[in-house]
Amino acid sequence: MDIQDTGYLTIALPKGKLFGISSELFAKIGYTADGLYEKSRKLVITNDEKKIRFIITKTADVPTYVEYGAADIGIIGKDVLMESGKDVYELLDLGFGRCHLMMAVPQSQKRAKLTSYAHTRVATKFPHIAERFFNSKGMQMEYIKLNGSIELGPIVGLSESIVDIVETGTTLRENNLEEIAYIMDATARLIANRVSFKMKFERIRQMTEDLRTILESGEDK
Amino acid sequence: MENQEFVLEIPYGTRDFLPTEAATKRAIETGFAELFAQWGYDEIVTPTIEFLDTLTIGSGSALEPHMFKFFDKNNRTLALRHEMTTPIARVVASRLRDEVLPIKLSYISSVFRYEQAQTGRQCEFYQAGVELIGSASVAADAEVIALAIEGLRRAGLKDFQICLGQVAFINGIMHQVHLTDEQQEKIKTAMEKRNFVDLDNIIDHIDLPKNTRDILKKIPLLHGREEMLEKAYAMAMSEQSRRALDNLCEIYRLLKVYGAADYVSFDLGVIRDFNYYTGMVFEAYSPVLGFPLCGGGRYDSMLSDFGSFCPATGFALGIERILLALEREGLPTPSIKKDVYVAYAEGKAADAITKISEVRAQGKIAELALTAKTLAEAEKYQQSKDYGELVYIK
Q: Domains, chain A, ranges and CATH?
């Protein structure tokens, strides 16, 4: 089996919270394969009848697989996509996985205004997005890249603030953090490799339309 | 980190071509050089270094952050060329301005862009291409597309596809619906990146009739074979857009005669940077590579940036990307063929030189031993260097 085999459409799905809803959505338009579940030990799951291949990757790697054409199609959160800066086509806003990126600080040490935080340290998983945001406010910051538990940063004195994604705000409240600046909204997106989009145009277009129809009918809920 | 062997590094984004790689690259380049010459294109060589102001004239400024820059003795800013079209336009607008048109030029050169190194593209990479200057005719556009296709075919690529579009189609539609420059810019950027999510958002926020919105949203999906053009005619509201489609039809008709039409499909979305191109545009793709192999199009306003109005069309092929696609298609790379090793016993050097001169005159690749050797030594060397034949003079 050759991953480059052009008769197949390869779809990259991220592990984690988007996996379940993504694979169910694809199943609704007939894109599924035996053994497609998150904890699968197989890295590549193939449906030979429909000429589809799924690969399950770490969330942050989906844009990379798609940019290089190792996967034709992928599903990924807009936050991760923006942060990666990868050159891929963004075909559809899938609407789920909704969250927003924001800046938060410890409630007890809240400063008068946003610019009072200039030249302080900010802990984040999204240094590129954060930098673009602060640059647009004319602020220079010191970015500390963390890979998880960002809220810990200000608590242990690693940073003055954090930039992170928020869904419900529970984690912020539990850690006595308060949102002081909104940065952007993010939802899951359907992305495609730029060459695949052209070489497999009809298939990808049809798939996008089918997904759009499902989403608009509200069947995904 | 056990291996502490001393290796000198090379700068980011550069590479060495070791002999077998260099031979493969040379073979491809020689093929292109012959092909371009057969089609009546003359080679041109321009300096690797230009003044930054020359390279950024007109629309080149978008790439300015990606140029390698430094200063000359008078503190003028210099840059390594980031493509060949601008330097060639400079030459044509100045030193060749009295030539009989059209001027047909070709090049095989390295160009430099300070970017993230990616598949088949380092910061220094090699391009082969042509510029056909001084003709606005459909035949000129058809010729460069046919030549690009022939180039990829001769290079040995089995499977590739050309996507052909037309800038004026979108411009005509935008013009017709009276969008501001800023709105046009946003829409074109979203179209170029095929960011359908942004595109839909932008269009939904502009006050337009629903019908117009639907058309704008559908443009990036206008992709297909000849029959797709029929659909596009139904959407072409302005004369400019219709003429753009007429132009594509005529180019396609000529490509059929060239026997190249099977490789061509149409894509009326924004394919390449549309500030630069003014007419047809195209890219070539291989299913085994996630990046385009080739790009080109008509750029009628570039020469006027240099003060001499002149229509022009051309393309550039990415040599490393073609090499990579060939390798992934499983095409055997040509090995360096070595024919004869001439070695000699003590005192027979003169005879050996006479012999090897004869062998070389027959067109064979031959190496001469540089010291006297025993037969056993000579045989060992012949095998290690993979020579087909050993001539031992005793």
A: 9-97+187-217 (3.40.190.10), 99-185 (3.40.190.10)
Distance in angstroms (rounded) separating the CA atoms of residues B130 and B298: 12
- DSSP classification of residue A144: E
Q: pLDDT by residue (tens digit) across A125-148?
A: 999 999 999 999 999 999 999 998
> Which two tokens mark B181?
């420059």
Question: Across residues B122-130, what is the average pLDDT?
Answer: 95
Q: How confident is the model at residue B2 (pLDDT cuts 50, 70, 90)?
A: low
Q: Are the CB atoms for A120 and A141 separated by under 8 Å?
A: yes
pLDDT above 50 (res B242):
yes
Tell me the average pLDDT across B349-362. Answer: 94
Pick from A32, A33, A18: nearest CA to A167? A18
Helix (H/G/I), strand (E/B), else coil: B288: coil
Homologous superfamily of the B6-167+263-328 domain (CATH) = Bira Bifunctional Protein; Domain 2 (3.30.930.10)
Is A69 close to B289, i.e. CB distance below 8 A? Answer: yes
**What's the gap in Å between the CA of B329 and the closest CA on chain A?**
10
Distance in Å, alpha carbon of B240 to nearest chain A alpha carbon = 26
What mean pLDDT, rounded, does chain A reach? 90
Is the per-residue pLDDT at A219 higher than 60? no
| B265 contacts on A by Cβ (under 8 Å) | 198, 201
* Closest in B119, B159, B197 to A90, CB measured: B197
Nearest-by-Cβ selection for A193 from B197, B198, B290: B290
> Model-level pTM?
0.83
Q: What is the ipTM of this complex?
A: 0.72
> Which member of B196, B265, B291 has the closest CB to residue A91?
B196
Q: Cα dist. A98→A15, A186, B178 in Å?
A: 16, 6, 35
CB < 8 Å to B281, chain A: none
